[in-house]
Amino acid sequence: MELPKTEQEGHDHDVCPSCATELCAGHILDWGKKYKPENPEQYASAYGWPAKLCGSKTIGVEISGAYDGVCYWQCPACDERFHRFEPNSRIHALVEQHWSRADIENARAESQ
Predict the structure, then answer these.
(1) Domain tally for the chain?
(2) pTM value > 0.85
(3) H/E element, 93
(4) Checking CA distances to 5, which of 20, 57, 75, 93 falls within 20 to 30 Å?
(5) Cα dist from 38 to 25, 32, 35, 94, whole Å
């Protein structure tokens, strides 16, 4: 599942399609003003500004041994999972296997 963009003017943040939680963690330039007041634009540009306006609350999940970096995203409010990679990619397939194993383990734990 892909995270859709909101239609609000001046925002480029996401909302969770499962629970509708707004996933904007604040404007990136505001972070720059707070953490690097002498050069906020330089700080913000490291996080994708100006093309990207909002930081995200979305959790990036890494699978050890599958990929060196975020393999999929997860909503912090409802735990819904979202693919990062295209369906025909090797990493997409590894994520699907990981989710299947995790779902089986969770079902076992809940039944005990």
Answers:
(1) 1
(2) no
(3) helix 90-111
(4) 93
(5) 22, 9, 9, 43
Domain that holds residue 106: 24-111
Element (H, E) at 36: none
The model's pLDDT over 49-107, given as tens digits with 9 standing for 90+, comes to: 887 788 888 999 999 888 899 999 999 999 999 888 899 999 999 999 998 888 888 88
61 within a domain of the structure (yes/no):
yes
Structure-block tokens of residue 61: 């999940």
DSSP count for the chain of H helices, then E strands: 3, 5
Q: What element of type H or E holds 51?
A: none
CA angle 16, 10, 25 (to 5 degrees): 45
Instruction: Return phi, psi of residue 23, to 5°.
Output: -105, 10
Residue 18 in domain:
no
Question: Could you say which DSSP state residue 83 is in?
Answer: E
**Token output for 55:** 């930081």
Which position has the token pair 């690097």? Answer: 36
